[in-house]
């Protein structure tokens, strides 16, 4: 998506969009050889930036911190899911062992 189109979609000026692109470069994705084309992913992230700045009232620095906080939270959630999957696998194995043991006891 071209900057002008995105600016219209976000209801901001192209200068504001360029400023956000500079300030939030770590967060945005670009497409193709032209650095000015935004991928759908980049568009969605610009919507997040606008939401944080305009709707939630964050400053640019505050929005950056919030984005980093959310990214860290996402990483913590991924780690927790991985740990829960390990526990689930262990419990399923334990359940199978107990079932096998009960089967042996009934056969005696």
Describe the structure.
The chain has a single domain (3-106), classed as Orthogonal Bundle (Multidrug-efflux Transporter Regulator, Chain: A, Domain 2). It contains four helices and no strands. The protein is mainly α. It has helices at residues 3-10, 14-23, 40-55, 60-107. Helix content is 76%, strand content 0%. Helix 1 crosses helix 2 (14-23). GO terms for molecular function: DNA binding. Residues 1-65 form the HTH merR-type domain. This is Putative transcriptional regulator. It comes from Saprospira grandis DSM 2844. InterPro entries: DNA-bd_dom_put_sf, MerR-type_HTH_dom.
Offer a quick outline of the entry.
The chain is mostly helical. The chain has helices at residues 3-10, 14-23, 40-55, 60-107.
Please report the first level of CATH classification, the CATH class: Mainly Alpha
Shape: rod-shaped
Q: Which fold name fills CATH's third level, the topology?
A: Multidrug-efflux Transporter Regulator, Chain: A, Domain 2
Assembly type: single chain
What would the average pLDDT be, to the nearest integer?
Answer: 88
């Amino acid at each position: 998506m071209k900057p002008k189109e995105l600016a219209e979609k976000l209801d901001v000026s192209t200068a504001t969009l360029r400023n956000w692109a500079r300030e939030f470069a770590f967060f945005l994705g670009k497409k193709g050889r032209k650095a000015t084309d935004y991928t759908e992913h980049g568009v969605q992230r610009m919507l997040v930036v606008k939401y944080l700045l305009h709707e939630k009232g964050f400053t640019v620095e505050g929005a950056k911190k919030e984005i980093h906080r959310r990214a860290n939270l996402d990483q913590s959630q991924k780690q927790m899911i991985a740990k829960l999957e390990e526990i689930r696998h262990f419990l399923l194995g334990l359940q199978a062992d107990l079932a096998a043991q009960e089967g042996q006891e009934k056969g005696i």
